[in-house]
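Hey, can you fold this one?
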Amino acid sequence: MDMAARLSAIDMQIADAARRAGRDAGDLTRIVVTKFHPASVVRELQSLGVRDVGENRQQEMSAKADELQDLDLRWHFIGQAQTNKAAAIRSRADAVHSVDRERLADALHRVAEDDSVLDVLVQINLTGDAGRGGVEPGAAEALAEHVLGLGSLRLRGVMAVAPLDEEPASAFARLRDVAGRVRIIAPDATWISAGMTGDFAEAIAAGATHLRIGAAITGPRPDRG
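Sure. Predicted structure:
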């Protein structure tokens, strides 16, 4: 199956899941995660109509964005971010999904140029493992409030990854609750970034607006060895 066929198949599955959930697939944003794939893959995806691309690593996002400046793409940074990479991330990303602490939000704000505004999401840790990325669900509102106080950041919503040891539907239901609490203090923060290849149907049922799908569209990741 080639890339066009894989993309079409996933989009059909997304549409089916949206129908089952009583939602309009047109309200969903499908982000294709191109981690470890060359820029040529992104160029092919763009030719197939893809506009939203996700990257986990700053260096890789920067290199691809630089090489593909001629394309109309929206770059989503979805990986764990280091504060010392804030300027590099902000210079290429259109949206950062992984703001999980005040120091990172402050760093992204501090490196703003001119009057630019960066879309950001608060990452929620659904695992109970403090070593994983994301803020604890109970601390989501406090971090959201902090972001709201930084004029160069636009709080768009929340992001999370479902734990491996829990049913996705249960995890995403908890994320939906957190998203609702955040919207009380930030009514415009309507994005819920959740759902990957194996669980996007459950994410859609729980209200996800942005899906992060990789290998099911791009094919197996290249061997970096």
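The two ends are 25 Å apart (CA to CA). Let me know if you want another pass with a different chain boundary.
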